[in-house]
Specification:
The complex is a heterodimer of chains A (about 60) and B (about 375).
Chain A: E1 2-5, H1 15-19, E2 24-26, E3 32-34, H2 44-53, E4 59-62
Antiparallel strand pairs in A: 1-4, 2-3
Chain B: E1 9-12, H1 16-27, E2 34-37, H2 69-74, E3 78-80, E4 85-89, E5 94-97, E6 101-103, E7 106-109, E8 113-115, E9 127-128, H3 133-143, E10 148-152, H4 156-167, E11 171-176, H5 191-200, E12 204-207, E13 211-216, E14 221-225, E15 230-233, E16 235-238, E17 242-244, E18 260-262, E19 267-269, E20 272-274, E21 279-283, E22 288-291, H6 295-311, E23 321-326, E24 329-335, E25 344-349, E26 354-361, E27 364-371, H7 374-380, H8 382-385
Parallel strand pairs in B: 1-2, 1-7, 2-3, 7-20, 9-16, 10-11, 10-16, 11-12, 18-21
Antiparallel strand pairs in B: 4-5, 5-6, 8-17, 13-14, 14-15, 19-20, 21-22, 23-24, 24-27, 25-26, 26-27
Helix pairs in contact in B: 1-6
The chains are: A alpha+beta (about 60), B alpha/beta (about 375).
Bound molecules: flavin-adenine dinucleotide and iron/sulfur cluster.
Iron/sulfur cluster binds next to helix 1 and strand 2 of chain A.
Keywords (chain A): Electron transport, Iron, Iron-sulfur, Metal-binding, Transport
InterPro entries (chain A): 3Fe4S_ferredoxin (IPR001080), Fe-S_cluster_ET (IPR051269)
GO molecular function (chain A): electron transfer activity; iron ion binding; iron-sulfur cluster binding
Chain lengths: ~60, ~375
C-alpha cells in the first residue's frame, strides 16, 4: 500500500499525527509530513484510520 | 420457505456523513446491501475548500471529491444520485423518494443542512449563497471583473468569503445584525481580532443593523438598513447560516425541532440513525444535545454509527473541532471556549499573531484555539484529555 498526502489540502489539524504518529508528522507550518509512504502491514489499519479522520481529506491510500 | 430479499440499509444524503457511514460499515465488516441516495448530481465532495481553494481559483471542482470514482465503487453501494427522499414511514420501514419506494432494515439520515436565504432575495441573480459546488463555481464566475460586493453575515463563512474577495481586490461591505463578528465555539473571544482584520483590509462593517429591504438593479444590489443607511454592491453574498434538511421527516414522528434528535450512538428511533449536520446528538461530556456543523463531527458521527450498526459497539464522545482560514490566518478550535472565562495563553503570543489559547474552568480545560500555531495546537490537545 502507498500513501499520498496533498499538502495543498492539509489544514494542519494533526489528526493524522495523533492516530498514526509513526507515519505522519507536521512541519513548523503544521502541514503534514510523511515519515514513510509505504507503511508495513501492521500500520495499514492506523493509516486507513488517519485517512478517514483527516477533516480536510488530504490523505489518500492506494492499495 | 419463501425467501425475501433482505432490504439492508439505506443512507439518505450522499455527502461527508453519508459516505463516512458507508465506509465505516464496510470497514467494520457489514456485508449486507447498502443503498445511498443523494439529491445532488455529484459524487460526494468536500465543502470546506469551496469557500477557500475553489473560491480563490486555486482548485478545480474535481479536486474537492472525497473519494476517487474507483475508491467509491469499491464500497459496493447501490448509489442513486439526483434523487431525494420525500417521506419516511417508520412503521412500514419504507422511505419514499422522488423516483421509488425503498424498504429498509436500518436507515441513516445524513441529509445535512441547506443555506438560509434572505427572504425576498431568492430569485435575485446578483444575490449568491455558498453551500454546494455549483454555488461556488457560480460565485467565482460572478467575481470576475467586479469592484465591490456586500456580504451579509459576519460569521465564519462570511469572514472566509470576505478574505477571498480581498484577495481579488474586491471591496467588501459586511452587514450583520449582531454587534460583532462570530466564530463558532469561541465564546466571542475572537470577535475583535477578526474585526481588526476587517479594518486592516479596508472592509466596511455595519454591525447591529437589520435589513429593511433589498432591491436589485441592472448593475447592482442595494440594502436598506435599519439605521437609515444604504449599502450597495455589484453582487451580494448571503452567509447567514444553515437549516437542517428535515423536510421529508415532517410526518415521521421523529423529534426534528433542531435537526434529528439522537442519543449518543446516533439512534433517533429503533433502526433509525442520523449523522452529520442534520443530527443533534446527545453529548455525554456536556450532558446536552448538540447539533454541530463541521467536518470532524460529520466524520466522527459517521464512523460511530457505522461501527454501532455493524458491531453493536459504542464510540467515545469527542470534543467538537473546526478550523478556518481568514486573511491567511490558520485557526484551529477544539472544545468550546467559555465566554465569561478569560483566555490563558499556552504557547506563543497574541501580539506576534501566533499563539495557542485556552479557557480553563476550575482546572478543567474547556476549549483550545490555535492561531497560526498548528503544531503547538496539536501538542496542547492533551490538555483537553486531562
Ligand atoms: C462553504 C463551506 C465551507 C465550510 N468550511 C468548513 C471548514 O472549514 N471546517 C469545517 O469543519 N466545516 C466546514 N464546513 C461545514 C462542513 O462542510 C459540513 O459540516 C459537512 O459538509 C457536513 O456534512 P454532512 O454530510 O452532514 O452534510 P452535507 O454536506 O450538507 O450533505 C448532505 C447531503 O444530503 C443531500 N440531501 C439533502 N436532503 C436530501 C434528501 N431529502 N434526499 C436525498 N439527499 C438529500 C444534500 O443534497 C447533500 O448532498 C463548510 C461548509 C460550507 C458550505
Ligand atoms: S489530519 Fe489531514 S489536515 Fe490534519 S495534518 Fe493530517 S493531513 Fe493535514
Amino acid at each position: 500500500m502507498k500513501i499520498r498526502v496533498d499538502r495543498d489540502a492539509c489544514i494542519g489539524a494533526g489528526q493524522c499525527a495523533l492516530v498514526a504518529g509513526s507515519i505522519f508528522d507536521q512541519d513548523d507550518d503544521g502541514l503534514v509530513v510523511l515519515l514513510t509512504d509505504t507503511p508495513s502491514d501492521e500500520f495499514i489499519a492506523v493509516a486507513r484510520k488517519a485517512a478517514t479522520l483527516c477533516p480536510a481529506k488530504a490523505i489518500a491510500l492506494e492499495e | 420457505m419463501i425467501s425475501v430479499e433482505d432490504p439492508g440499509l439505506v443512507i439518505v444524503g450522499a455527502s461527508l456523513a453519508g459516505l463516512t457511514c458507508a465506509q465505516s460499515l464496510r470497514a467494520e465488516g457489514y456485508t449486507k446491501k447498502i443503498t445511498l441516495i443523494g439529491a445532488e448530481r455529484h459524487l460526494p465532495y468536500n465543502r470546506p475548500p469551496l469557500s477557500k481553494q475553489v473560491l480563490a481559483g486555486k482548485w478545480q471542482a474535481a479536486q474537492t471529491n472525497i473519494d476517487s470514482a474507483e475508491k467509491f465503487a469499491e464500497l459496493g453501494l447501490d448509489f442513486f444520485f439526483d434523487e431525494d427522499a420525500q417521506e419516511l414511514n417508520i412503521a412500514s420501514k419504507e422511505v419514499r423518494t422522488s423516483k421509488r419506494t425503498l424498504a429498509f432494515e436500518d436507515l441513516i439520515i445524513a441529509t445535512g443542512a441547506s443555506v438560509r436565504r434572505l427572504p425576498g432575495t431568492e430569485s435575485m441573480s446578483r444575490v449568491h449563497v455558498l453551500r454546494t459546488i455549483d454555488d461556488a463555481l457560480g460565485l467565482r464566475e460572478a467575481l470576475v471583473g467586479i469592484k465591490c460586493a456586500v456580504v451579509v453575515g459576519a460569521g465564519v463563512l462570511g469572514s472566509e468569503v470576505i478574505s477571498a474577495l480581498s484577495e481579488y481586490g474586491i471591496h467588501a461591505t459586511v452587514i450583520d445584525r449582531m454587534a460583532r463578528p462570530q466564530l463558532p465555539l469561541t465564546g466571542g473571544h475572537f470577535a475583535s481580532r477578526v474585526n481588526d482584520l476587517f479594518i486592516e483590509h479596508g472592509v466596511v462593517a455595519k454591525y447591529g443593523v437589520e435589513i429593511n429591504s433589498v432591491t436589485e438593479q441592472e448593475t447592482g444590489i442595494t440594502f436598506d438598513l435599519s439605521d437609515g443607511s444604504k449599502v450597495s454592491g455589484e453582487i451580494a453574498v448571503v452567509a447567514i447560516g444553515c437549516i437542517p434538511n428535515v423536510g421529508f421527516l415532517a410526518n415521521s414522528g421523529l423529534d426534528i425541532s433542531n435537526g434529528v434528535l439522537c442519543d449518543s450512538n446516533g439512534l433517533a428511533a429503533p433502526h433509525i440513525y442520523a449523522a452529520g449536520d442534520v443530527a443533534s446528538w446527545h453529548n455525554s461530556i456536556t450532558g446536552k444535545s448538540l447539533r454541530l456543523e463541521n467536518q470532524t463531527s460529520a466524520i466522527e458521527q459517521g464512523l460511530a454509527v457505522g461501527k454501532f450498526i455493524a458491531t453493536g459497539e459504542s464510540s467515545p464522545t469527542t470534543h467538537p473541532f473546526f478550523w478556518s482560514e481568514i486573511f491567511g490566518n490558520k485557526i484551529l478550535m477544539l472544545g468550546n471556549l467559555e465566554a465569561d472565562i478569560p483566555l490563558t495563553i499556552v504557547h506563543g503570543s497574541p501580539s506576534d499573531n501566533r499563539f495557542v489559547a485556552a479557557t480553563i474552568s476550575n482546572g478543567v480545560t474547556t476549549g483550545i484555539v490555535g492561531w497560526n500555531m498548528p503544531r503547538e495546537f496539536r501538542q496542547s490537545r492533551a490538555m483537553m484529555e486531562a
